[in-house]
Amino acid sequence: MSGTLRDCKNREEVDAVFQAKGISSNNYEAKNAMLLDVMGNPQMFCSIGDPTDEQKYEMILISFLGGKWKYAEALSKISL
Fold it and tell me: On the CB side of 23, how many CA atoms lie within 13 Å of its CA?
């Protein structure tokens, strides 16, 4: 693994990057911020009301690992 969040392909790799950066396993606010930053800070919608930071993390992580943000990023570069 290269050690960058952008290159992670599964939960274990993401966890390893956070651990290497010294982010505790329950610091969901920091994890969420880092994942969203890597994805280009997309708008996230949650229909379950007011989710906990852990619930937000799971939603953001699933979106991150899905990789659609990479496609959107590539399209934005083409349109420039």
Answer: 17
* pLDDT tens figures, 10-68: 999 999 999 999 999 999 999 999 999 999 898 877 777 889 999 999 999 999 999 98
Q: Give the long-range contacts of residues 38-44, CB within 8 A, separation 24 or more.
A: 38/5, 38/6, 38/64, 38/69, 39/63, 39/64, 39/69, 40/69, 40/72, 40/73, 40/76, 42/69, 42/72
Taking a C-beta distance cutoff of 8 angstroms, is the pair 57, 32 a contact? yes
